[in-house]
Each structure stands twice: as C-alpha cells, then as structure tokens.
Amino acid sequence: MTGPVRRPVLRTLLTGVVTAVASAGLALTGAGTAHAATPLPAHVFAPYFEAWNGDSLSGLASQSGNKYLTMAFIQAATKGSCTPYWNGDSGMPISSANFGSDISALRASGGDVIPSFGGYTADNTGTEIADSCTDVNSIAAAYEKVITTYDISRIDLDTEDNSLTNSAGIDRRNKAVKAVEDWAAANGRSIQFSYTLPTTTTGLAASGLKVLQNAVSNNARIDVVNLMTFDYYDGATHNMATDTQTAAQGLHDQLKTLYPAKTDAQLWGSIGVTEMPGIDDYGAAETFTTANATTVYNWAVSKGINTLSFWALQRDNGGCPGTGGSDTCSGTTQSTWQFSHTFEPFTSGGTTPPPPTNDFSLSLTPSSASVAAGSSSSASVKTAVTAGSAQSVALAVSGAPAGVTASVSPGSVTAGGSATLSVSTTAAAASGTYTLTVTGTEGSAVHSATYSLTVTGGTTTCTAAQWSSSAVYVGGNTVSWKGHTWKAKWWTTGEEPGTTGEWGVWQDLGAC
C-alpha cells in the first residue's frame, strides 16, 4: 500500500498515529513507565486512514461511523535515518502536536487507532524504519516512542516491495519486535504486532512467508498476519470475495506449519484481510463490489478472523465510476460509506446483516469472446430476482479501451429480464485481452459481471513514448521500453520497466 506520494497500495497500505499530551486527553508516558493501554477487540474492523492529506481523523471517523482506524504511514525521512516521522515528513514528528486531539476524540467515542510503519513508498525508497536504520535498539526505540506517545496497543508493519527481499532489514525488524515485546512485558504493557503482507490467491508468496519464518526464528510473537487481498496483477479476472477466502485459507495452512501447537480457532483468530473497495490499481478485472463486501463480511464472522480492513477510508464513496486506483473514490457504484457500514458490525463480534428487501443477480452469456480488429461481438445480460419483488435494474458497461465501443441495450430492465451487450472494434484497436464490466443497480443493491474481450490482428506498434530515467510518471502513464508497452501503477521515477518485479510499479502490457 502506498504512502503520501501516490495512492498506492498499495497498496497497494497502512496506518499511523500521533501523540497525545494530558491537555489532549491522552496519556503521555515515559518509555519505562508501566501503563496498560486498552487492548483492541478480539475481532476488529479498522480501515486505513490516509494520514498525509490533511483530512480530519476524528471527523471522517464520525461521518463514516468507524470507531477504529489504521493510520498510514510512519517511516524515516531519509534513507539511513533511525528517526520515525508521520509520512516520512520531518515536519510531522511522533508527538502530541500531530493527530493527538483526533486520537483523543476517537477514544472518547469508544474507538482507537493502529499506527502502521512502512507502506509501499517507504519500502521502495529505503525509508522503512528497519531497512533504513541498522541498529536494532534504535528500531525498537522508534516502536516504543510510538507506543508511549499515543498509548496504543498494536503496531502494524506494512512490509512489501523491496522490504520483502531485504533479509537484513527483515531480521532487524523481527529482533526489534522481540525486544519491544520483552520491554512491554517488563513494564506491564500489552502490545501486539501485526504484519501486513501482499498475497497470492492461494496464500503468501515465498517472500512473505520468509518474513514470518524469520519472526519465528527470532522468537518474535506476531499476533496478526494481515493479507492485502487486492492488486494481484496476475492477468486473471477475479471474483474478489472468492479470492479473499482462498488466500486466507492458504495463509491458515501456512500458519499451521509455522505454529503447529495452535488450534484451528487460534489460527483463524490471528488472520486479517484488507480489501480495496471498488476498482484496485490493476483495473476493472480486480473489482471488489458491494456484494463482495457482504460475502466477505459473512465469511469473516463465520471464520472468526481477527481483523477486517480496507484501503482506504477516503475511497469509500462512488464519486468516480470506472476509475481505478484513486486515493479519493472507489470507482464503483455505491453510496457514501457503504463499505464501512457493511463491515462496521464486525467489531462488536459480528452479526449477519439482513439481506436487502429487494435483490437480484446478474450474469453474462457468453462471458468472453475473441474477435479480429474491426469486428463485433455480443452477449446476453441476464438478471433474476433473488429477494423481494422485481424492481427496475439500471445497466451500464465500463472498461472499453481505445478503439472498442461497448453498450447495453436496453439501459434498464425489470429484474428477471434480459438485455444485450454489444461490442464493436475498429481496425485501430490494439491487440490484447480486455475486461469489460457490466454493472446493474437496483436501489442499494449493486451487482456486476465481467466480459473478457480478446482483440486479434490489431495494432501492435509501440505508440507510447520511450521510457526516460529522468521523467516522473504517475499511475496510468504508459511508456515503450525494449519492445514492450508498460503502464505505471503509481508515481515513479528512475525505475526501469522490467526490473521491478511482479509487485513493482510497472505493469507489462505486452509486446508492441
């Protein structure tokens, strides 16, 4: 998850908090003073809050109904430093002057915060505290400063990109975690550590698993392993709810090997998942819908997982239909705070939310086609009543690239009726496989289905400008390099396409 420079995730992801003084209503304690922070609930929903953009933490918490938030991110200002700052900004030290009154207000309403160290930008620039600082005691002191300044009970470690392959940083980080846990025990404190890691649809990749294996070897207790269940970048079309469940099951099985003495309930109780509402950084093929949210919520309650989250609170609105990877909106059709409202009951132990009074299903037949550039294809859009009575369903299609036109006719049907998806291509359409998303909306019920369109015999020349090592690129920019077209997932400069790996900034769009 990203930090202050770009959205990203990446996530591509995660939290940070600030200090408090007595006047702000928070306990300000010394590193050696015994003080027990209030533990988090055993099951907690804590979406990420982007702490770098000036939004009010307590204000958005109140508006959205969220009581717990994960704050992104804490990192060093420069590579080699051991001093933590919010967002790596030397003007935002870990002190009560930053976010203190906001955190106090959140606690007064019965909530709390989880500060997060790392994030994609820190992991990519060497400013993640354990990558930057080579002294284990100084890293531990940075964690302890956040704990005592804000009196928090959990620290999140968002570890991705280069931090996943920095073996020295991994070892230092886990040694520091162990040191802090020993310090906390000696001083009557309760502190948890969570790792937030990228995942495949079947569990952690080898690099993420090595982070946990190193923690075990250092006797560092990791209370929660939180999967970023988005930005898979594997070229497949995803049912994001299903993939969350298979990813978590894979993690469960990996944790069973690492911690053979734990019961099944204990294993599930140490797992977290973080979704990305709407269209993630990859694009429409990875869209987490409002219906997916209900499915994941019910599954999370049934499994008894520890943490439910999403990236990020500021995205929880439908202000930019069809847009992927935005910092400020989901790109899908939704009401404001709809994802928050779906997940919020999870904190109190979770109860299955009542189904909508009226609901429907939507499907496409066929769901894919291969056409020569200049040709057309079509599919039947079928709806059915799944709850209540038949209501009018508004239909729309998104995701068509340049040279491709897609439409649904009629634009609305009564649930149970059908429509036609018509797709036409021009000779100038570029060869490749594209995902079109048909969305149906009926009141608060929103469902979608995807159509995989493969164009053959189209343009293959490299039309994008050549990559430049000195240029600055933002998410969505395309370049040509070594016979391929590449798309930037987020802000970058100086990173050569083809060298950043599957979790890196450049997406290979194929030969040109």
TrEMBL record:
Gene3D superfamilies: Carbohydrate-binding module superfamily 5/12, Glycosidases. Keywords: Hydrolase, Signal. Pfam families: CBM_5_12, Glyco_hydro_18. It comes from the Bacteria. Residues 344-363 are annotated as: Disordered. Residues 43-340 form the GH18 domain. PROSITE patterns: GH18_2, TAT. Residues 1-36 form the signal peptide. SMART domains: ChtBD3. PANTHER family: BIFUNCTIONAL CHITINASE/LYSOZYME-RELATED (PTHR42976), GH18 DOMAIN-CONTAINING PROTEIN-RELATED (PTHR42976:SF1). This is Chitinase. It comes from Actinacidiphila acidipaludis.
